[in-house]
Amino acid sequence: MPTAEKEAVVAELTDVLKRAKGVYLTDFTGLDVPSLTLLRKQLREESISYRVIKNRLGKLAIKQAGIEGLDDVLRGPTGLVCADEDPVAPARVLSKFAEEGDGKPAIKAGYVDGDIFVDDQIERLAQIPPRDVLLGQMVSAMQSPISGLAFTLNGILQKLVGTLQAVVEKKQEAGGE
Fold first, then answer.
1. How many of the other CB atoms lie within 10 Å of CB of 16?
2. Closest by CA position to 32, among listed 105, 107, 90
3. For 93-129, how does the pLDDT look when each residue is reduced to its tens digit (9 = 90+)?
4. Separation CA 130–CA 134 (nearest Å)
5. Average pLDDT value for residue range 149-155
6. Residue 71: which of 31, 111, 41 has the closest Cα?
7. Is the distance from CB of 115 to CB of 122 less than 8 angstroms?
8. Cis, peptide link before residue 90, omega less than 30° from 0
9. Domain 4-128 belongs to what topology?
10. 3-state secondary structure the chain
């Protein structure tokens, strides 16, 4: 029998899931309270939320949010990680934390742009640089041909000016004799 409190939790989770650009489910088994607190702090620094959820309520919220394919991973202790800005940031933070903490927490699955990611796919997501770095790389790649063209044109103009200067000097010598 659903209670008003459970319905409110499901509604809140549904809202969080609909807003999130990236959703990850973790198994936090084996993490002590200080480690979990440290993980939450690192996630918060990246504007990422982390909350422990009940699987039954999580399934209802996921269904109401229109996300399919995550029902199978909602078993055992589950932490819900949601990113409203950078959908790949949770994968980076969780993977780095797991490397430093003996593989804990384990990432059960990720959901980004309608696709479900598991196991090594999440590791590949974690390898993607942050958005700011990618934008910088793109600007650099776009700027490189333009600066090369400007450098080439500048060289041509310098040669033209040098040639004209040589012609002027030669005419002055020829006119002066």
1. 18
2. 105
3. 888 888 887 778 888 888 888 888 887 888 887 887 7
4. 6
5. 80
6. 111
7. no
8. no
9. Alpha-Beta Plaits (3.30.70)
10. CCCHHHHHHHHHHHHHHHHCCEEEEEECCCCCHHHHHHHHHHHHHCCEEEEEECHHHHHHHHHHHCCCCCHHHCCCCEEEEEECCCCCHHHHHHHHHHHHCCCCCEEEEEEECCEEECCHHHHHHHHCCCHHHHHHHHHHHHHHHHHHHHHHHHHHHHHHHHHHHHHHHHHHHHHHC
**Rounded Cα–Cα distance for residues 108 and 134 (Å):** 27
Q: How many residues does the chain have?
A: 177
Model pTM?
A: 0.71
Buried b vs exposed e over 50-64: b needs ≥16 C-beta within 10 Å?
A: beebeeebbebbbee
